[in-house]
Design brief:
By secondary structure, the chain is α/β, with parallel strands linked by helices. It has 19 helices and 7 strands. Helix 14 runs antiparallel to helix 17 and helix 16 runs antiparallel to helix 17.
Amino acid sequence: MDLFDYNVSQSKSTPLAERMRPANLDELLGQQHIIAQGQLLRKLIETDTIPSMILQGPPASGKTSLALLISKMTKAEFVKLNAAALTVSELRTVLVQARENLKYYRKKTIVFIDEIHALKANVQMTLLADVENGTVVLIGATTESVTHEIIPPLSSRCQIYNLRLLSKSDIIRLLTSALQDQERGFGQKNLSLEQEAAEYLAAICNGDARNALNSLEIAAYSTEPGNEISLDIVQQACHQQYKGITTTEYYDLISAFIKSMRAGHSDGALYWLARMLQTGVDPLFIARRIVVQAAEDVGLANPHALQLAIAAKAAAEFLGMPEARIPLAEAVIYICESPKSNSAYKAINHALKLAKDTSYYAVPNHLKNSTGLYVNPLNNPGSKLEYLPPQLQNSRFYDPQKSGFEQKIHNKYYPE
């Protein structure tokens, strides 16, 4: 029995987000970088020759939907498992059945493991041999870091595909489709969505298709057939209510907050912080913006700013409102009054651009693992080694600024 029985999901009692799962690869929004026409993964899916893979991405970015589509297009046996409740004995039962399918029926088995990061290391180890010899094709889905949560022997046997948050235009397209779809959506109610309401919902769902559809579903059931779903109805339907501000006002508040911190204007930043908290903006969203500012705009001019920003985020999460306002305000003032430097921000952007636009140069022999050519500069002061590929010897990414703590680094690079 196919555990991805798509017909069941078409019941009107099923949540809209489930009913609106993409029916084909062209309906999978936001992931054109891996499944557009001509992309390798799409060719592998369409020819039923997919390798073992791990789909990594934010919640509701389409990992399970992509697995569902593969299950519909493959001739292989498709088994869905959830890592949170999976035991070694249950997994071994699946693997034994997969071996029998391959031996007696020449039929391969695809094992989809949702939330694969929740598997303990010993359970992940159970998969190794069968993934390596091709007895099973593994598809893992995770919202966490593959590097940190998946054991290297398993991740090295899988292709890694990174899924992205849906863009604002993707969300609006999805909402429009849900309202117009006669079978899966609300097409029979003949509803429309006010443009400002659509933009608002697309803005606050943070690229999460499931949250956007859940809010739309509540709003649609609250609107009479033939009518327009208003901004007010959408705001009431959303988990986070922004108390009447428009999408433009929401973004303007965030922009004013960020620009005030960057300029070091404590009073301005505190005012916009208060406006956002009073309006109902999620304190953790604000905390994340503070962390970004500490890293991007304060940077190495005062490295302690990032530590304080992260501590403020943890405190806000631990305390909740209204007490969360205090550590948030403390971090905002500290960032405003700190010296500023965006040298690290510019340095990594420069390095990323060069890495993207140039060939993958080989690692110099003296930097390779276990060649025996490396000379530890801590034990051998004055030793001279090159740490860039020969083709990039004249490249410069980091340019320290004369600000705060970074003044010392600047003096090292540019002695007077």
